[in-house]
Amino acid sequence: MIELNRIKHSFTLGRKGNERRVPVLHGIDMRVGKGEIATLVGRSGSGKSTLLHLIGGFLRPTEGSIRIGGQDVTAFTEGQWADFRLSHIGFVFQNFQLIPGMTAYENIELPLVLRGLSASVRRNRVKEAMERLGIADYADHYPAELSGGQQQRVGIARALILDPPLLLADEPTGSLDSENEEQFLRLLRELNEERGLTLLVITHDERVAAIGSRRFRMEDGLLSEIAAEAEKEEALR
Amino acid sequence: MKMADKIRFVRQNMKKNKSRIFMTVLATAIGCAFLIMIASVAFGLQKSFVDELLRDRLLTEIDLYNSMKDGEPSPITAEDVRRISAMERVKAVTTHYMKGGEVELDGFETTTTLVFTDFEQEKAANLELEEGRMPESGSEIVVGYHLAEHLKNKQGASYSGRLLDAEVTVTGLAMDPKKNEMIESGEARLKVVGILKKPANERNMETHVMIAQSLMPSFLLQDEDIGSPQAKAYAASAEVVAALAKELREQGYSLYTAADSVNQMETIFLVMKIGLVFVGTIAVLIASIGIYNTMTMAVTERAQDIGIMKAVGAHPRSIRSIFLIESSGIGVMGALIGTVIAYGLSAAVNIALPPIIAAALDSKPPEGFVFSYIPLSLTLLSVGISVGVAVLSGMRPAERAVRIDVLRALRRDI
User: Where does the chain cross the membrane (chain B) (predicted)?
Assistant: First the structure.
């Protein structure tokens, strides 16, 4: 599902005429298969969010190529990325990123509106998703009127309303208490089992990382797979 | 994304900033109303002047003065009339031979002008009657609208009876060359079958008598020369007048058409209209600064929403069109309100100015004179300019919205 080949990325910092390039990723190779749950842990500033933003098309790699679902997306234009994101990728953010002026219903409906689906189709799909996630009673509530856990469910409903094959989650439990975190992780596992959804979860929390069938670690812009590290250590012993 | 959904988005966004949107629409409406009003003065004056010029005249009418023969101007002859009548774009050619005369009815009489004409050609030229019909025989005549009121008895009282269908005595007058005094040159009892249409210009008093040319010899002294006729050619339509006039001039005829004056006047007014529309557009451009400001603020305020929409999968095209719809919506609302205001102001000006002018200058403006006239073309042009300028004002903010960086927006860093 996700193939990263020799991905390098650097940011340009400083004022114009006095810029300097700060390398963040130093040649990342990564393969995540369809239906896998991959988790990526790393310290703050290690480059894990940058990697997620590259996979989501919010940044362009300085070098290397990215394939998602068999398509080379490296040179996609912004318009191509928009279409691709709408049909292939769902996003869950740490701060939920719901539109404050829209109700829970309208936030979940947004991708369906962008896709140009009819009002009746939208109504049925949103209703179904809200019932599935247990937030049907909050349809007319604005994000500010919802708890963190409810907001995260609205975020998940929005991310999955168009049935994308890939879900990218950036610190999804960062704003949740332990009870909501547990519920959230259970929900991710269920979605993975029910729909064969591929998941890439960025976290600094080892408990969240533990749900991954593939576990990666990012350190100083270099990626390694935790299971492979363990195998190496085992072999050395 | 469907257009209906984009409009729903725009309406929701506009509702959130009602007062700001209202002020921007108001500024656009004032700009549009100013544009229409200032240009309407040129349209109004043009209409008034052209109407005045064409009053009692047909645009298809061509006055023929003389023709050039052997390098010398000579009067229009029967041969000229035949030749012009045969031309493709000519509907009719009328010739009026005129001499002085008198009309008498039951002791009431007046001096008048006897006009000898060909009624078949007059019919073809659509001579308009107030009442009655065109003559069908030599003993029938039509008379000017004001003839009846000019018929007076010896006591000076005006004729109050009905002139139509009355038999009048028409007498021709001519100068006796031997005695050097006016004498009767002929007389006939003729039946009035038609009254000519009331002239639109109230200063014109029409008292003449139109008689068939076949009767002309009986009103002339022996060897009397009635002179050359007043000839008019009538073009088949207003569109061909210019071409027909050109052809006649090329054939050596000197002539005048109302279209010549109208064309000159229209050129002057066209320049005036362009100038005034340009001045008016400046007002709309000033209003556009407000639209630009409103749209820029809208983009800045909604940067986070735009970032979320882009992250979810909103196409740049959709983002751009949402903002362009909003700015054009402001333009359309402003233009519509401005148009209504302009129509109201125009009507008010046309009602209020004549008495003010009458009081200030001690003279009345001509009847039907309009100071401000808003033709549909001006309305469409002004609405087009206002909406066009509004869309242009929204383009840069819309591009800013498209270029919003998703990550910065999500970090609330914009």
Answer: 268-292, 330-353, 373-393
